[in-house]
Design brief:
Number of strands: 15
Strand order of the largest sheet: 12-11-14-15
Radius of gyration: 28 Å
Helix content: under 10%
Order of helices and strands: EEEEEEEEEEEEEEE
Number of helices: 0
Strand content: over 45%
Shape: elongated
Number of domains: 2
CATH architecture of the largest domain: Sandwich
Length: about 160
């Protein structure tokens, strides 16, 4: 018996619909590599007949387990009064906001400095030392991995 792709040729038929010839698996067939038995089912939607497998098992998602994607393209601009941070929002539509962390001393590590709902933040703490920033997206319960920018240096105007 000749095979074509994954399906045995004897179980494939073609029909002409809207001047286009389409091929469908009918009856019972075995997947060529795994040998698993496949039983397509016909489902009617209006005049269209489609062949599809039975419905999959229902998937349950606990929102408290969702972890948002990280903000991207984090940039910083030092002005004479502040440091302005801007970034691109993740595609996740369920993000509640963003948390900003600053590091000025390696021993103290990153310290939480603010939480906002827009993709920009102004740090008004006078930037007299080199500093690093991290920004995370806030999900229903968990935070995303951090986007980080390092070595922001403020140059005092003359």
């Amino acid at each position: 018996m000749r095979t074509s792709g994954r399906w045995e040729e004897s179980n494939v038929t073609s029909i002409k619909r809207n001047d286009v010839r389409e091929r469908f698996v009918v009856g019972r067939s075995r997947h060529r590599r795994s040998g698993a038995l496949v039983r397509p089912h016909a489902a009617q939607a209006g005049d269209e007949v489609r062949y599809e497998s039975p419905a999959s098992e229902e998937l349950q998602i606990n929102p408290s387990e969702l972890i948002p994607s990280s903000p991207s393209n984090l940039q910083a601009v030092a002005t004479k009064e502040s440091v302005v941070l801007v970034w691109n929002e993740p595609d996740d539509t369920w993000i509640k906001g963003y948390r900003i962390y600053r590091e000025t001393d390696k021993k103290k590590g990153f310290v939480f400095i603010g939480e906002i709902s827009t993709p920009s933040f102004t740090d008004t703490d006078m930037p007299l030392t080199k500093r690093n920033y991290r920004v995370t997206a806030i999900g229903p319960v968990k935070e995303s991995p951090a986007a980080e920018i390092k070595n922001i240096v403020y140059i005092k105007p003359k």
